[in-house]
Amino acid sequence: MRDPLAEPSDLIRSVSRALRVLEAVGRAPKGLTVKQIARRCELTVATTYHLVRTLAYEGYVIRREDGTYIVGLEVADRYRELVTAFRGPPAVGESLRRAASDTGYSHYLGRFVGGQVAITAVAEGPRSPYVEDLVPGFDEGAHATALGKGLLATLTPEQRFRYLREYGMRPFTSATLVAADAFEADLAAGDRRGMHLELGQFRHGVACAAVLVTPDKDMERRVVLACALPAAEMMTSARVVRAKLLAVARAVADGLATET
Prior knowledge:
Elements: H1 13-26, H2 34-41, H3 45-58, E1 61-63, E2 69-71, H4 73-87, H5 90-103, E3 106-113, E4 116-123, H6 146-152, H7 157-167, H8 180-193, E5 196-199, E6 206-214, E7 223-230, H9 231-256
Antiparallel strand pairs: 1-2, 3-4, 3-7, 5-6, 6-7
Helix pairs in contact: 1-2, 1-3, 2-3, 5-9
């Protein structure tokens, strides 16, 4: 949700409208007609028609034979570029892939991007339950994932309060922590443990553990490493998981140190 009070004085309206059109099309996998796009974006049909034709010319939307528009392949190209930029040096990706292969668990890196918790790299493991949301760029549910908890724990209480007030504490499952005091207690326990945990708080039957890779005064340079596994396995192997995560975290930190 955009903050109207934060709108820049030099906002280029046509660019803003084009992005709204692209977002509307992206949220409709079955496609939208120009009239449907205009209605959803609260634009005139004439304006929408010009914007859609421009986006189609640039490859960001595709017109199908039935007259509806879907997202174009240029969007996929931009996403690949985003993933590459997020991943960092090749050694970091190699460390994640090796950890996923050795343990069988999916591993994730996360950091603050524009002040928001986001997943920045993923290496899938065959023993982890597949969670389709956990891909590079995912920026929701920080309070319900161990990766998010690990990053939020680096904030001051006041910074954390503002973050949770802005982004909310949506209940992803019945186990999700949605009260600030319970969440603070959970973070404190994670700090004492040296590893942040969640069991079924983001997805039923899935557990996640996370450790800090690089602390930094600049919040955008703080990195957290996490892994996902069946909740039942976490209950019996938390110490082993922590030891392996810390080892991988050291390798990732070494890889990040080569970043220029």
